[in-house]
């Protein structure tokens, strides 16, 4: 049996967690939280980062930090995970869904300008599969209209746009350490602040609207309730787990890349027969081997392929149902047709992909796909 996902465990997590138990400080913002934040800030040049309980929470912090108000318009790709839109809907913003590019699921920058009105406040690009959006185009549009760019970099750890780490390009950005991502904490996330004007308020919002972080650094002698916020910081147990992953991150990434390349090598010949397409990685982007997907010719063919694989104990899965057609949002959507998002909804298929997968298993999955098309 080859499952779709299997959380990777390095073995160091349990040692770190035991250390936390011995130290006796289990709540957040302790030694392991700091280790994780410092590591990521140093490795990727983040101006400031804060560990959060999830990427969803990091995105909610972005919405609070940027003072999103009822009626503000936020441009979000329709082909994404709900959290990209949810964080802003909670502040009563109106979501304006953008279509994907025709050759990859990322937001199409050439269609953005037509969506901007006097109420537009932010663009939230999602680096789908860890592959960078066309950030220069997006940032120059944002600059022209004075909009914020908030990166949903949930899938994009260790990935780059023209040599710049993803997560450093927007004013704010959010990463995920959910068990389905490259580096995991069970549930977990990271807020990255690239504009230091947001530093102080980010910490306050993170700690239930109090200035506790400043108090613990000895900068003030008592702490109080100074702003809105929530309990966005994870416990040290989660941070200790995450540290057991970050510490071996290069090995994780190497392994995942070798699996990705094996899939590509096996499946590329089949694309010449035009049964399906592989994900396109533009020249400005790197590949962080977050997932491997193919784009089938139509929904029926994808459905039969999923069934064929399942019959052989291999579990592949489709991805997002476009948000503009969701039960929650379709009535609020302005009715624009988003053909590329619809196509990825119907045709994109994610193949089993996790760090512990073996090259032989990849070969087996590819043989089954080959058999299916024969
Ligand atoms: C995984 C994911 C999220 C949510 O991350 P959580 O840590 O589970 O909250 C948000 N956006 C995208 C694009 C994702 O892939």
Q: Layout of SSEs?
A:
Elements: H1 12-23, H2 31-44, E1 48-52, H3 55-65, E2 73-77, H4 83-89, E3 94-98, E4 120-123, H5 135-145, E5 148-152, E6 160-161, E7 164-165, E8 172-176, E9 189-193, H6 199-206, H7 212-216, H8 236-246, H9 249-271, E10 276-278, E11 293-296, H10 299-311, E12 317-318, H11 339-347, E13 348-350, H12 359-373
Parallel strand pairs: 2-3, 2-4, 4-5, 5-8
Antiparallel strand pairs: 1-9, 6-7, 8-9, 10-11, 11-13, 12-13
Helix pairs in contact: 1-8, 2-8, 3-4, 9-12
The protein binds pyridoxal-5'-phosphate.
Pyridoxal-5'-phosphate (PLP) binds at residues 54-56, 80-81, 83-84, 126, 152, 154-155, 176, 178, 189.
Q: Major sheet: order of its strands?
A: 1-9-8-5-4-2-3
**Helical amount among residues, as a percent range?**
25-40%
N-to-C series of helices and strands: HHEHEHEEHEEEEEHHHHEEHEHEH
What integer is the average pLDDT? 97
Tally the beta strands: 13
Rg, nearest Å:
21 Å
Measured by DSSP, the beta-strand proportion falls in 5-15%
Largest sheet: 7 strands, mixed
What's the total helix number? Answer: 12
Can you offer a commentary on this structure?
The protein contains 12 helices and 13 strands. The mean pLDDT is 97. It starts with 11 loop residues before the first helix and ends with a helix. With 374 residues, it is of the alpha/beta class. The longest helix is centred in the last third of the chain and has 23 residues, at 249-271. The chain has helices spanning 12-23, 31-44, 55-65, 83-89, 135-145, 199-206, 212-216, 236-246, 249-271, 299-311, 339-347, 359-373; strands spanning 48-52, 73-77, 94-98, 120-123, 148-152, 160-161, 164-165, 172-176, 189-193, 276-278, 293-296, 317-318, 348-350. Helix content is 37%, strand content 13%. It has a 7-stranded mixed beta sheet with strand order 1-9-8-5-4-2-3, sandwiched between helices. Strands 10-11-13-12 form a 4-stranded antiparallel beta sheet. Pyridoxal-5'-phosphate (PLP) is lined by residues 54-56, 80-81, 83-84, 126, 152, 154-155, 176, 178, 189. The site of pyridoxal-5'-phosphate (PLP) has 14 residues, from helix 3 and helix 4.
């Amino acid at each position: 049996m080859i499952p779709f996902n299997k959380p990777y465990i390095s073995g160091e997590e349990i040692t770190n967690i035991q250390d936390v138990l011995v130290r006796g400080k289990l709540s957040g913002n302790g030694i392991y939280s700091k280790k994780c934040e410092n590591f990521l800030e140093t490795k990727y040049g983040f101006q400031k980062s804060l560990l959060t309980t999830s990427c969803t929470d990091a995105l909610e912090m972005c919405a609070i930090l940027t003072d999103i108000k009822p009626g503000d318009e936020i441009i979000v790709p329709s082909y994404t995970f709900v959290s990209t839109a949810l964080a802003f809907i909670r502040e009563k913003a109106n979501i304006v869904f953008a279509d994907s590019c025709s050759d990859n699921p990322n937001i199409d920058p050439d269609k953005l300008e037509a969506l901007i009105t006097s109420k537009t406040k932010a663009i939230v690009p999602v680096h789908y599969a860890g592959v960078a959006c066309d950030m220069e185009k997006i940032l120059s549009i944002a600059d022209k209209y004075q909009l914020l760019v908030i990166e949903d970099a949930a899938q994009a750890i260790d990935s780059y746009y023209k040599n710049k780490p993803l997560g450093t390009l927007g004013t704010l950005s959010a990463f995920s350490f959910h068990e389905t991502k490259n580096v995991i904490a069970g549930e977990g996330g990271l807020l990255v602040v690239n504009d230091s004007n947001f530093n102080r308020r980010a910490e306050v919002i993170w700690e239930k609207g109090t200035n506790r972080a400043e108090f613990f650094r000895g900068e003030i002698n008592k702490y109080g309730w100074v702003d809105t916020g929530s309990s966005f910081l994870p416990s040290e147990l989660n941070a200790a787990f995450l540290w057991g992953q970050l510490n071996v991150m290069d090995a994780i990434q190497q392994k995942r890349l070798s699996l990705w390349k094996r899939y590509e090598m096996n499946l590329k010949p089949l694309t010449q027969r035009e049964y399906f397409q592989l994900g396109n990685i533009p020249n400005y982007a790197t590949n962080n081997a977050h997932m491997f997907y193919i784009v089938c010719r139509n929904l029926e063919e994808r459905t039969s392929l999923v069934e064929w694989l399942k019959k052989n104990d291999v579990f592949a899965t489709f991805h997002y149902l476009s948000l503009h057609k969701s039960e929650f949002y379709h009535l609020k959507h302005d009715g624009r047709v988003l053909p590329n998002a619809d196509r990825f909804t119907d045709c994109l298929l994610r193949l089993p992909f996790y760090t512990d997968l073996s090259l032989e298993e990849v070969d087996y999955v590819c043989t089954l796909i080959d058999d299916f098309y024969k």
